[in-house]
Amino acid sequence: MIYLDNSATTMVRAEVLDVIDEVLKKSYGNPSSLYDFGYSLSKKIDSARCVIAKYINACENEIYFNSCATEGNNTAIFGSISSVKGKNVVTTRVEHPSVFNVYKSLKERKDVRFLKLDNFLKIDLESLSSLVDENTEIVSISLVHNEFGTIQDISKIGSIIKKKNKNCIFHVDAAQAFGKVHIDVKKDKIDILTFSGHKIHAPKGIGAMFVSNSINLKPYILGGGQEKNLRSGTENVSFIMGLSKASQIMYENIESRTLYLKNLKNILIKEISKISDVKFLSPKDSLSNILAVAFKDIRSEVLLHFLESEKIYISTGSACSKGKKSRSLEEIKLENSYIDGMIRISLSEFNTEEQMYVFVNNLKKYVQEIRTIMKRGR
User: Fold this and answer.
1) Residues involved in catalysis
2) 20: domain CATH number?
3) In terms of CB atoms within 10 Å, which of 18, 138, 216, 268 comes out highest?
4) What's the total number of domains in the chain?
5) Is the pTM of this model over 0.85?
6) What is the mean pLDDT of each run of 10 residues along the chain (378 residues)?
7) Where would I find the H helices in 181-295?
8) Who's near 157: CB < 8 A, 6+ residues apart?
């Protein structure tokens, strides 16, 4: 099997599984219990907060655990907006559905403003400066775009937002970025940051968010008051510790991993360039493990299933938007002859150079085969 869809989800590391297994077997108490077997687990959770806080330059008490970035994004946005009329919120049209669909739901209550983007989905900073004003409550931006791998200049974006409105909340969706790029929430003036464990070789069902001590975020889930009342529900201690371990491994080896993935990506770019009528949608400075390309006159869904027959797995875009046309391709106004032929290849350190060549050889074969079939059908 050649798995090239690591932006959708990742294999859980053996080291992470070992941590989870140990906690499940030996530390299965409830952290809210008054006796030591339960209460002592709260110290384990706090140690996990310390690990994550260290890697983003936050304080331990600014880290909250939840189920995933989708929950975190909903908490961030709904918890930030007020009932006051005349307020506005700012985002882009190419955000993850857990941001974009929340903003869509606010249209009757808020002035929802969308930023201008270039052809690689980078934010137009002049557009940002013109849209943020004294009535802006929150700005939500993905640090790394989930389809193109575009990395936003978060430091400049944060500075512009706070210069225009120091009380505006800056919310960063870091689902594709955490563990893969360096993040400094203080330097970049970030108020809320969200991410999921399953993007960094931890299990599905665990995530975390940074919430600055300088803001008051309203709780989204009510109940027993866990996570300082922000996210009620018994803490998933084993997965929290697994997330901590995965975060540690990702950041301790970030430089060497980035170089390794860049090498694999360069092989792909060189070999895919040999295929006729192909457009590279990812910018040259995109995230090291994401490459989006579009082929003329093919159906990417058909290509996906041809490759699947060889046990090679890629994506036709974001796995979080089942069957829906990509808003990203609409945003860049990709030509009709290419718009159905977009694929996303996303790598991990568990991929090899040999796999890249096997994949590209099959890709070349099936792109040609699909084009031949489609010509016959005209």
Assistant:
1) 320
2) 3.40.640.10
3) 138
4) 2
5) yes
6) 98 98 93 88 95 98 97 96 89 97 94 97 97 97 98 98 97 98 98 98 98 93 90 94 98 97 98 97 97 95 96 79 75 92 97 98 96 77
7) 237-252, 254-272
8) 123, 125, 128, 139, 141, 170, 188
